[in-house]
Amino acid sequence: MPVPDSGRAAMPCTLEAPRAGPLPVGAPLRQLRRQARLSQLDLALQAGISQRHLSCVETGRAQPSPALLDALLTTLDTPLPQRNRVFLAAGYAPRYAALPLADPGLAPVRAALMHLLKANNPAPAIVIDSGWQVLAANQATAALFQLLGLSQHAMEQGFNLLTALLEPGGFGDCLINAEEVRQVAWQRASREAMGDPGLAALLAGLPFPGESPATPSPAEPLLLTRVRGPGGELRFLSTFTTFGMPQDITVASLRIEHLIPADEPTWQALTLACERLGELEPG
Q1: End-to-end CA distance of the chain
Q2: Which of 1, 22, 168, 245 is 20 to 30 A away from residue 214, measured at CA?
Q3: DSSP conformation class of 212
């Protein structure tokens, strides 16, 4: 649905109040549009404004209203932290908060996360944030760690998934196809680090996994996570769940990674591991 621009979309640029120089917001908007590989006409049509007005905004001859700015950034699918920076560049207050996950206002979010984790048993699932820090895990994840002889202390205290994959002695060492999985993780984290200084710093301190391995066979529909278990190979599909239409930076940063068994032996091994773990747990 086009977003109203208070009737300014049809105004010629010459009607705008004169300014000393280009507005700081024009350059980042133009850069975001080019990163999205959209022409001015494409973005203008999708945002519901005229191409002329968008050109005036990008060149600093027109000041975008908060509503127009939000419409452009939403159309460009700009991450919420970056949207806040663009609002500041335009002279407006940041629009999106970053509540702590423990905040009472995020109680529905926490409840949804716990529901999804529990529902995924006996398949492993973890909640990670934008820095790849594991915030929560289900019983099946603990059972998998126990099965592989990995530290249960890490499960209790929390750990960083990227570190566990890339550093020696972690989960990555249990992978049969570690080179492939590490390369995919590195590439994804590198893309995300472009807009996340904290993740960029973490990545800079981790070992580079090396050059990309041979391209998988076209007959393979996706890359499996292949784990070296005590009773043989465990094979998993990896999927992600995120919240739709987040309006908070913390909520937008959360994702659940599900490791879904890719064959019956893996289902059986995880089901048995969960049952054994349940027998050991008090209560």
Answers
A1: 54
A2: 168
A3: -
CATH topology classification for 13-89: 434 Repressor (Amino-terminal Domain) (1.10.260)
Judged by DSSP in three states, 48 sits in coil
SS3 97: strand
The residue behind tokens 């973890």 is 126
Six-digit token string for 36: 């999205």
Instruction: Please list the helix, strand and coil fractions of the chain in percent, rounded to the nearest 5, in that order.
Output: 50, 10, 40
pLDDT digits (tens, 9 = 90+) for 57-86: 999 899 999 999 999 999 999 999 999 999
Q: Which residues contact 165 (CB under 8 A, 6 or more apart)?
A: 171, 172, 181, 182, 185
What digits encode the pLDDT tens for the residues 2-17?
444 434 344 445 434 4
* pLDDT (0 to 100) of residue 16: 43
3-class SS of residue 50: coil
